Amino acid sequence: MRMWILALEDLSNLNAVMECKPDAVCIGLAPLAARSHACVQIEELPEMVKRFHQHDIQLLINAQGMIEQSQLANVRNLFHQAIDTGVDGFYIADDGYIHLADEYGKQIGRDLRQLLIIQPETLLCSGQDANFYLEQGLQAASLSHELTLDEIVACAQDCSNAKNLEVLISGHYSWMESRRPLIENYLRYIKRQDAFEQNKVYTIQEQMRDARLLTWQDDQGTHIMSDLPIQAGSDLCAIADSGIERFRIDAFLKTNEWGIEMLQTYRKILEHSPNENSIESNLKQEETLIRKEKTNVRH
User: Fold this and answer.
1) Residue 49 sits in a domain of what CATH number?
2) Strand 39-40 and strand 58-62: pairing?
């Protein structure tokens, strides 16, 4: 069964999000999340779960921050509390959550691995990689965002349960992550430390590339994102034909309104896939939305 997932940019305009009826939304849980502006505190989570469930929308949690030993007790406690609120899943990058799920699952008599969606950014690059996690009972495995169409299809063919693969079809993806304060260090090196501001979005350009990449530094380190969102376009039909059923649109560094428009456009692409004229019309709409990139990037 096809699943449309919208990762929110922030917590504004939620009524419009609910009217759009994604199958699931993704928000962050502070301080477990990474690269999310749509974060809530644990005290706010029960009401958020109730609100989305009333509209038959699943609530997934960005818990992609890495687990440091010094924070393990706090992470464990927040993870347990979040499970108790009835959330529908957790995006994780740290395998330690599998152990935490097993640990708490024994206490409450539930298989909690079904709540985990592995998203290790660039590291999940084959059907065998996905099988490793899916065979351990995880809900889904999110493929690396840099894969080509042919590579995505090959992953699906080599995966024993392709319907539980997930693909980012629209949105910025992580180009590089580092635990080091790279921006702050660079500005200090060129004696411009006064120009540094935590969480401020800067752009950088490599010597050999024209692209200007979005970057910022926070408590988790330095993040560098792609210059433009992924634009799956007509490739979406081939991805769906390969057996993949989970499609994620990420409004991060864009707007929720942009994410809603992209969701509506991609739905139309698959709904009208036998009709080439309809596909072409929807692709033009997608291209128009992509061209709004520079005006919608959050600074």
Assistant:
1) 3.20.20.60
2) unpaired
